[in-house]
């Protein structure tokens, strides 16, 4: 299993190179896709190359093994402990054909404004106007409004990350997140891949949902949102 500080790097240098920008020891996803960036190593060279990639005033979200330590030329904006979870077996992922259960729909370009609105409200992680291009995104609508969504983000050999799992506050407690995740997981497993995900270590509600679906903690690390200061 790839280490948490390397999974973004691996994605940008293997299965998702079409979204990558940069060279040397740092890469980032195109800004319209996501703020996620990575360096081959979290050392002076890595941070220097990352600064070149994002440019002065640019913002970057990175995964780290240890808490971010202040570095010249960088401003820490936000961050928290992060868990990487993996589902090697999984719970019973049978779908539901009940007419009383809201229909799961596939989301795409036309849904992007609503997806951004929901992720801005619920803050599951960086989400941009082109994030939906990274993989399959599914949603549940209630009353014509996007009530919940989940999708695929980072992809490395043998693994696909489930991301943007979020539910509008008016629709919590109805099992939407679990249903959407189970459907995404089925798609990943049909491809012969293993589902993984990342979650804030203090998000007990989400972790409980993930554990019921068969996920277990694989790694503990940190994420940091950083801004490159102007010279």
Task: Describe the fold and architecture.
This protein is an alpha+beta fold and 231 residues long. It has 2 domains: 7-83 and 222-228, 3-Layer(aba) Sandwich (Aminopeptidase), CATH 3.40.630; 85-220, Gcn5-related N-acetyltransferase (GNAT) (Aminopeptidase, 3-Layer(aba) Sandwich), CATH 3.40.630. The chain contains 5 helices and 11 strands, in the order αβββαβββαβββαβαβ. The strands form 2 sheets. Strands 4-11-5-10-9-8-7-6 form an 8-stranded mixed β-sheet, with helices on both faces. Strand 7 (137-142) and strand 8 (145-156) form a beta hairpin. The longest helix has 15 residues, at 176-190. The model has no long low-confidence stretch (mean pLDDT 92).
Quick gist of this model?
The protein is of the alpha+beta class. The chain has helices at 7-13, 44-54, 112-122, 176-190, 204-212, and strands at 20-21, 26-29, 37-39, 59-64, 74-86, 104-107, 137-142, 145-156, 159-167, 194-200, 216-228. The strands form two sheets. It has an eight-stranded mixed beta sheet with strand order 4-11-5-10-9-8-7-6, sandwiched between helices.
How is the topology of this model organized?
Layout: H1 7-13, E1 20-21, E2 26-29, E3 37-39, H2 44-54, E4 59-64, E5 74-86, E6 104-107, H3 112-122, E7 137-142, E8 145-156, E9 159-167, H4 176-190, E10 194-200, H5 204-212, E11 216-228
Parallel strand pairs: 9-10
Antiparallel strand pairs: 1-2, 2-3, 4-11, 5-10, 5-11, 6-7, 7-8, 8-9
């Amino acid at each position: 299993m790839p280490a948490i500080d390397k999974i973004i790097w691996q994605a940008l240098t293997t299965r998702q190179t079409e979204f990558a920008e940069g060279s040397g020891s740092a890469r980032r996803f195109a800004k319209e896709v996501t703020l996620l960036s990575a360096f081959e190593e979290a050392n002076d060279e890595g941070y220097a190359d990352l600064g070149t990639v994002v440019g002065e005033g640019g913002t970057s979200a990175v995964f780290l093994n240890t808490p971010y330590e202040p570095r010249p030329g960088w401003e820490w904006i936000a961050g928290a402990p992060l868990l990487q979870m993996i589902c090697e077996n999984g719970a019973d992922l049978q779908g539901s054909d009940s007419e009383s259960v809201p229909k799961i729909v596939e989301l795409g370009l036309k849904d992007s404004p609503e997806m951004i609105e929901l992720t801005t409200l619920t803050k599951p992680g960086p989400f941009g106007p082109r994030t939906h291009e990274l993989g399959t995104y599914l949603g549940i609508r209630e009353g014509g409004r996007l009530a919940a969504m989940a999708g695929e983000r980072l992809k490395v050999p043998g693994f696909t990350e489930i991301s943007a799992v979020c539910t509008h506050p008016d629709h919590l407690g109805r099992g939407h997140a679990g249903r959407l995740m189970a459907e995404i997981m089925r798609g990943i497993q049909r491809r012969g891949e293993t589902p993984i995900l990342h979650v804030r270590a203090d998000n007990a509600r989400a972790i409980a949902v993930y554990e019921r679906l068969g996920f277990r903690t694989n790694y503990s690390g940190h994420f940091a949102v950083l801004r490159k200061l102007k010279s």
